Amino acid sequence: MPDTILELRGLDAHYGDFQALYGIDMQVTEGEVLAIIGSNGAGKTTMMRSISGLLSNRRDQIRYRGGAIGNLRADEVAHKGIALVPEGRQLFPSLSVEENLLIGGQVGRQGHWNLRRLYDLFPILEERRNVPSTSLSGGQQQMVAIGRALMSNPDLILFDEISLGLAPVIIKDIYTALPGIIGQGMSAVIVEQDISKALSVSSRVYCLQEGRVSLEGASDTVSREDISRAYFGID
Amino acid sequence: MEWINALVQGILLGGLYALFAAGLSLIFGVMRLVNIAHGDLIVLAAFLGLTVTTATGMHPLLALIVVVPLMAGLGYALQRGLLNQTLGDDILPPLLVTFGLSVILQNGLLEIYSADPQKLSAGGLETASLPVGGLSLGVLPLLTFAIAVLVIWGLQWTFYHTSLGRSFRAVSDNQDIAQLMGINRRHVFGLAMALALAVTAVAGILLGIRTSFDPSVGGGRLIFGFEAVIIGGLGNLWGTLAGGVILGVAQTIGAKIDPGWQILAGHIVFLLILAVRPNGLFPRIAA
Ligand SMILES: Nc1ncnc2c1ncn2[C@@H]1O[C@H](COP(=O)(O)OP(=O)(O)OP(=O)(O)O)[C@@H](O)[C@H]1O
Ligand SMILES: [Mg+2]
Predict the structure, then answer these.
(1) Which pLDDT score, from 0 to 100, does residue A179 have?
(2) 8 Å CB contact of A102 and B163
C-alpha cells in the first residue's frame, strides 16, 4: 500500500471576501500522476497556489509527507520538495534561459535532474542557453518553466495548464516528454483543460466546479457523462 | 586650460555622486523602495567614521574596515526589522517610513554629535596632487573616482555573475515566482540593503574626508544621488556613474561661470535631461 504524499483536508481559500475554494479533500499517492480538470474559474490555479505556499492557508488543511504545511511560505514549501510550473510560464525576463534553469536549482536539493540532463531532454534550450528568456517561443518558454521546476529535484511537481496557448504539435511534444519526466520517482498533479490529455497521462482525476470537488475517480473508468456532469454542473 | 581643469574636476566629483547614488539605485532596482533616509545614512557613516578615527587614531580610509561591516549589518537589520513590513503594492508606506527614519537619524546625530561641522582628517592625502598634462589633480578626487568605478564594477559583477545577483534580479522581476524557487525575498531584500549600506559607508567616509559635514547635510546628498540615478536611467549602474559624472561636470562648470552657480547648474542640467529624456540617458530596456 503506497503512502500518501500530499493530502488536502477541507482546504478553503479566499481572495478578500471572495471564497474560491470550499473544503477540498484530496489525496495524492506517492508516485502517482493526478489530473485536475474543471472549467474556467473553478479554482484550479487557486488550489495550486495554496499547495505551493503562494496563498496562505490554515496549517492543517495541507499535509505533506505527514506534516502540516498549510501555513508555510512558498520558499519553505519549495525546500520541502514541492515545485510548481505556474500558469502562463512566468519566466524571469531579466534572466537568460540558463539562469532561469539555474535559479530553480538554487534550492540545493540533490537528485536526478541537473543542467546536463535537462539539456539532453530539451536540446534546443542548450542551443539558446544565453539568450534572454523573453526571446524564446511559447513552447520553448514552457520547456524552461518545466526545467526550472525540475532543477529543484522535487518529490511532488505541480503543473498548472502547461499546454495553454501552445500549438498542438508542441503540446504533443510536451506530453510525449512528460512520462519520462515524471518517471523519475516523482509524484505529479496536472491541471489540464484538455480532458482527454488529462485522462491519458493520469491514474486518477478530480474535477473542480465552483471551488468544490464535483468528481473523483480512476482515469480509465470515469465515463464521459460523469465528466460533463461534473464539469458543467448539469444534472 | 581652466575650463579643462573644471571639466576634469567635475568628472572626478561625479565619482563621489555615483557612490551616493549606487545604493539608491540598487535598492530601487531590487525592491522598488525609494529610500528617503539614504542621505542621512551617508552622513551616519561619516559620523561613524569620525567616532572610529577619534577613538583609535586610525586613518579614515582604514576605518572602512569597521564602518563598512557596521553599516551592512545595520542595513540588514533595518530591512528585516522595519522596511520589509512597509513593502507592498502601495508605494506610500515605504516613503513615509523612510522619511520618518530620516528625521530620527538627523535628530539622533544632532543629539550625539551636536550641530558642529566635523571633518575626517586624512593627513597628507587631502592636499596631495599629481601633475597630469599641465593639470594638477588631487590624489583624493582621483582615488574617489577609482573607488567609484571599482564599486560600480563590483556591484555589476555581483548582479550578473553570482547566485546572489541572480536572486536580486529574480526577486525584482517577480517576487512570487522567486519565492517558488525557494528564495526568501525578505532575506534577499535584507542582503540588498546590506550591500547598499556597505556602499553608503564608502560614500560617507569619502564625503567626510572631502568636505566638512554636520547632521543636516543628508538631504543635499540624497538629492545629488537621486539626480545621478535619474540622469543615468533607473536600473543601470553604469548609467548611474555617467549620471554622477554629468552632474559633477555641470556643477564645476557652473561654478567656473559664477561660484554661486555651482549647485543650481547641476539642478538645471538635471531638469533639462529630464525634459528631453524622461527615462534618463541609459534606461534599462523594459522587458
Ligand atoms: N487574485 C484574485 N483576486 C480575486 N479573485 C480571484 C483572484 N484570482 C482568482 N480569483 C477568483 O477565484 C476563482 C478561481 O480562480 P482560479 O484562477 O483558481 O480558477 P482556475 O480554475 O484556475 O481558472 P482558469 O481555468 O481560468 O485558469 C475565480 O472566480 C476567480 O475569479
Ligand atoms: Mg488557472
Answers:
(1) 87
(2) yes
